[in-house]
Amino acid sequence: MQIFIYDTEKEIGQAAGKIFVDHVKANPNAAMGFATGMTPVPTYDYMAGEYEKGNVSFAGMKTFNLDEYCDLPREHKNSFYTFMMDNLFSRIDVKPENINFLDGNAPDQSAESERYAQAIIDAGGIDVQFLGIGRNGHIAFNEPAGGFTGEAFKVKLTDSTIEANSIYFDDIAMPRYAMTMGIGSIMRAKKIVFVATGASKAEAVKAMVQGEVTPECPASILQTHDDVTVFLDRAASQGLGVRN
Ligand code: PGA
């Protein structure tokens, strides 16, 4: 893991966003893995800014998102599909047919998991995968568990995740289930761009970087991936014992 510590979320967004932009400039048909939540927003702002300046086109890029809620219409304002449309996709020239999501409402979850895995294979694998981390060490919706997960699956969200994300749900109760890419699928990404900001992530970051590799901290598996770039702000890095 290469770890970079920055003062501001904007600087992190520029550094992380530049990795995606440079990769798409060099490989216009690249497959990118995206995440939702507050963490990636500055990265998406940077990417949209580079598109607006005419510095890059995303017309050939394929996208795969990590996860999606179950029991929520795709167009609901709190779906991850809507989040990505608002925060990135509607601001750049990505083609709608190149945008891929797990279907949280698929009647047959194992068929849906197979469909998504095949779509990723057909795209040549994920070139660069954005990852954030939950306060409990989750990546995507892979919650702390007794074993590392494999392909995409339906997950019951933990209380910690429900507490963290329910602030976004003001009209309906937050869904209790989601479809998520599994750890096995995430680990096949060729390059991983990991971002964590804020003191609430410090403990999870410490466990991820310095702790034992254990499914109790799903992000700790990233220690075994050979191309992970970690961007932290000072608050998120405070448990690592580095001087900053
Ligand atoms: P956040 O979520 O970016 O909103 O903190 C990250 C996550 O739960 O993976």
Lay out the secondary structure.
Elements lengths: L1 E5 L2 H18 L4 E4 L6 H12 L9 E4 L1 E3 L10 H8 L11 E2 L8 H14 L5 E4 L21 E4 L2 H7 L11 E4 L2 H5 L3 E6 L5 H9 L17 E6 L11
The structure holds 2-phosphoglycolic acid.
Short description:
With 244 residues, this protein is α/β, with parallel strands linked by helices. Helix content is 30%, strand content 17%. It is built from 7 helices and 10 strands.
Supply the key terms.
244 residues, alpha/beta, 7 helices, binds 2-phosphoglycolic acid
Written overview of the protein:
This protein has about 240 residues and is of the alpha/beta class. It is built from seven helices and ten strands. It has helices spanning about 10-25, 40-50, 80-85, 110-120, 160-165, 185, 200-210, and strands spanning about 1-5, 30-35, 60-65, 65-70, 100, 130, 155, 175-180, 190-195, 230-235. The chain has a seven-stranded parallel beta sheet with strand order 1-10-9-6-2-3-5, sandwiched between helices. A three-stranded antiparallel beta sheet has the order 4-8-7. Helix 7 links the parallel strand 9 and strand 10. Helix 1 (about 10-25) crosses helix 2 (about 40-50). It is globular. 2-phosphoglycolic acid binds near residues 37, 39, 132, 133 and 134.
The N- to C-terminal Cα distance equals: 18 Å
As a percent range, the share of helical residues equals: 25-40%
If strands are numbered along the chain, what order do they take across the biggest sheet?
A: 1-10-9-6-2-3-5
Low-confidence stretches: none
Rg on CA atoms, Å = 17 Å
Could you tell me which ligands this complex binds, including any ions or cofactors?
2-phosphoglycolic acid
> What is the count of DSSP helices, taking H or I runs of 4+ residues?
7
User: How much strand content do the residues show?
Assistant: 15-25%
